[in-house]
Design a protein that fits this description.
Radius of gyration of chain A: 25 Å
Strand order of the largest sheet of chain A: 4-3-2-1-5
Number of domains of chain B: 2
Family (chain B): Belongs to the bacterial solute-binding protein 3 family.
Number of domains of chain A: 2
Strand content of chain B: 15-25%
Structural class of chain A: alpha+beta
CATH class of the largest domain in chain B: Alpha Beta
Helix content of chain A: 55-70%
Structural class of chain B: alpha/beta
CATH architecture of the largest domain in chain B: 3-Layer(aba) Sandwich
Low-confidence stretches of chain A: 1-15
Keywords (chain A): Membrane, Transmembrane, Transmembrane helix
Protein name (chain B): Glutamate transport system substrate-binding protein
Number of helices of chain B: 11
Radius of gyration of chain B: 27 Å
Oligomer: heterodimer
InterPro entries (chain B): Bact_solute-bind_prot3, SBP_3_CS, Solute-binding_3/MltF_N
Low-confidence stretches of chain B: none
GO biological process, one term (chain B): amino acid transport
Order of helices and strands of chain A: HHHHHHHHHEEEEEEEH
Shape of chain A: flat
Shape of chain B: elongated
Largest sheet of chain B: 9 strands, mixed
Largest interface: A-B, 57 and 49 residues
Helix content of chain B: 25-40%
Mean pLDDT of chain A: 80
Chain lengths: 340, 313
């Protein structure tokens, strides 16, 4: 895989071949992370899914194709991936523009990554975040976008009065769009939701620009460490998210006895259906004993809030909300409530 | 120059604040998304109930109440039965093979719940304060009034409560019912039998002259003998809330039943077909003089479920 040609970030403070070399190294490390992390995660997930059992892992490896694995990973990890990229580009741009003012300062890692990345890739990352982030967190994209592209209110109009009017109109429209949700959130005692919807647009107005010199170094080290730590922390649930869909299979064990098996279907052939049971262990069920099978949601998919933004649930991403428009009805099957 | 420096300083302080606040909000959002949900889920509640882990659910029903709860040719049918099937399915017991129907008479409903021989009672069970001290109720799923049913030969003679007080007429009702108490309050001498069906048989045999009970129960017997009886609308003045009986020791199960009844109510309110409406039209609907709608459920708990993200419209 070849790294794309860098388009921005003239590094005036480190001229010559040293800068080019450093740039190439940073580019390599960036792409290594982007490509290697999904691959490693996909394999790690199989091990976790198998409950740490070697033979079960091998069974999964034998039956889950690499394309399925990668597609499954992207489905569940796209949100995390977008979050990581947006955080790097937004922080990188803020740190980069701040360091520019201080000659001789070593450029922070994120600033170098942000400069090396072509604009189309940054835009794609924001687009990925826009479609995969929960609607509740989407307002945070506004300050992140303003920071990544260093957009100031001055870009809106030359005249200060006109700028104020435009900003007031934009904020007014924003509040009008969200007013019912904000009211509901307030009544339900959700101050964080109110803050997440109201504060970010205001922050977006002030976030572009250089930081004071004294802040740059501590901010760079703390945020870089924090973002990496956050990604590792957020990656843990992604590793433990199942690769295979959850089902409840009704098995007829005797003429008048049926049993519901909750688990993931690994493979089905003429002889048996191989089920990875939710509470552990693999079970081979003769195919002719399988009476019914339903797809079930996992506990992790339960909503945490009871709020909507204009018909869209705040915990849906725009992609999911759109999907619900296309296939609106979803009723949980009684078998999914199988107990014990 | 000084002004420019001041503006630049203000701007850099504003940027610092904006960056710090954005990071703080992002961190708070991240932490919040990993915390335990504030609102319990249906599955959480289900784990708290005494039925968790049971392969089948035992539901106490009437077997002798036409249109409401009836055993005919080995199959249970009626409005109460349909409501019971809906609740059982929502609790994870879909299909009659997962339901153990337990026949209970009117007076056995409370002892059956107290003794643990049934998990729920769905048998035209009026929610009263007295009973609420002994069992829990989820509902109401129906609001009814008390009426009297008389044989056609007496339909011109018995028209008022005053007529029922006449010692010439023998008024019959089922034991342990709210009707019995209501008739007593109106000083009506009453013959108490085990089931309303016994009263109807008694009237047909000439032993009694009138039967008083809940309008739905009477509608059921009217549907069975449409040519023999007339339902007389009497101003008893009380309406009854019919609910699902749950053991008083299991508040989680009560909450779940109330949640599912409310789910049906919300579906009906938004103009959709609801399980309640389907049950009503298949059973009671054609036989009631006044069409009914599902009443709002009382004390509905706040729970989340998997289909919450779907807009109920």
């Amino acid at each position: 895989m070849t790294a794309p040609v860098a388009t921005g970030g003239d590094d005036v403070h480190a001229p010559g071949s040293g800068a080019a070399e450093r740039r190439a190294r940073a580019s390599q490390s960036f792409w290594a992370v982007v490509v290697a992390v999904p691959a490693v995660f996909s394999v790690l997930r199989l091990g976790v899914e198998a409950g740490g059992e070697l033979q079960t892992t091998l069974l999964l490896v034998a039956n889950v194709g690499p394309v399925n694995l990668l597609a499954g990973f992207l489905t569940t990890a796209a949100r995390l991936l977008a979050t990581g990229l947006v955080a790097v580009f937004a922080l990188g741009a803020v740190l980069g523009v701040s360091v520019d003012r201080l000659p001789g300062h070593r450029r922070p890692l994120f600033a170098r990554w942000a400069e090396l990345t072509p604009t189309w890739f940054v835009l794609t990352s924001f687009l990925l975040a826009l479609t995969t982030w929960q609607i509740l967190y989407l307002p945070l994209l506004l300050p992140a976008f303003a920071a990544a592209f260093q957009l100031r209110p001055e870009r809106l109009h030359e005249l200060a009065a006109a700028r104020v009017l435009i900003v007031a109109a934009l904020l007014g429209g924003w509040l009008f769009l969200l007013a019912p949700t904000l009211l509901d959130a307030w009544q339900q005692g959700e101050p964080l939701v109110v803050a997440l919807f109201v504060v970010p647009p205001v922050l977006a107005l002030a976030i572009a620009g250089p930081l004071p010199g004294a802040v740059i170094r501590p901010l760079a080290s703390i945020t870089q460490a924090a973002v990496l730590a956050m990604l590792v922390w957020a990656a843990l649930p992604v590793i433990s998210t199942p690769v295979l869909p959850l089902t409840v299979t009704t098995v007829q064990t005797a003429p008048d006895t049926t049993e519901d098996v909750r688990g993931h279907v690994v493979v089905v052939d003429d002889v048996s259906m191989v089920l990875l049971q939710e509470h552990g262990g693999v079970r081979y069920v003769p195919t002719d004993q399988v009476k019914a099978q339903v797809l079930c949601p996992s506990e992790g998919e339960l909503p945490r809030h009871r709020l909507r933004v204009r018909d869209f649930h705040v915990e849906d991403s725009l992609l999911e909300a759109l999907g619900r428009r296309v296939r609106p009805v979803h009723r949980i099957d009684a078998a999914c409530r199988v107990t014990g | 120059m000084n002004q420019f420096l001041t503006r630049s300083r203000v701007r850099s302080v504003a940027t610092t604040l904006a960056v710090a606040l954005t990071l703080l909000l992002a961190a708070a959002a991240g932490c919040d998304s990993r915390q335990e949900p504030r609102i319990p889920s249906v599955n959480d509640k289900l784990r708290e109930t005494h039925i968790y882990g049971q392969p089948t659910i035992r539901i106490g029903v009437s077997t002798v109440g036409p249109l409401m709860g009836e055993l005919r040719d080995g199959t249970y049918a009626g409005f109460d039965i349909e409501i019971a099937r809906y609740i059982a399915a929502q609790l994870g017991y879909a299909g009659d093979h997962r339901i153990e129907w337990v026949p209970v008479s009117t007076e056995d409903r409370i002892p059956a719940l107290q003794g643990g021989s049934v998990d729920l009672v769905v048998s035209t069970f009026s929610m009263t304060e007295e009973r609420a001290k002994l069992v829990s109720f989820a509902g109401p799923y129906l609001v009814t009034t008390q009426e009297a049913m008389v044989p056609n030969r007496l339909r011109d003679s018995i028209r008022t409560i005053e007529d029922l007080r006449d010692p010439r007429y023998k008024v019959c009702t089922s034991g342990g019912s709210t009707t019995e108490a209501e008739l007593g309050r109106h000083q009506i001498r009453v013959f108490v039998v085990k089931e309303v069906g016994d009263c109807v048989e008694g009237i047909l045999a000439g032993r009694y002259d009138a039967v008083s009970s809940d309008e739905t129960i009477l509608a059921g017997f009217l549907s069975r003998h449409p040519k023999d009886f007339t339902v007389v609308d009497m101003p008893f003045g009380t309406s009854e809330q019919i609910g699902v009986g749950v053991p008083i020791s299991d508040p989680a199960l009560r909450d779940l039943v109330a949640f599912f009844l409310d789910k049906s109510y919300q579906q009906g309110r938004s103009g959709q077909s609801s399980p309640w409406l389907t049950a009503y039209h298949r059973t009671l609907g054609p036989w009631l003089r006044q069409p009914k709608t599902q009443p709002p459920t009382l004390d509905v708990p706040e729970l989340v479920d998997f289909d919450d993200k779907v807009r109920p419209s």
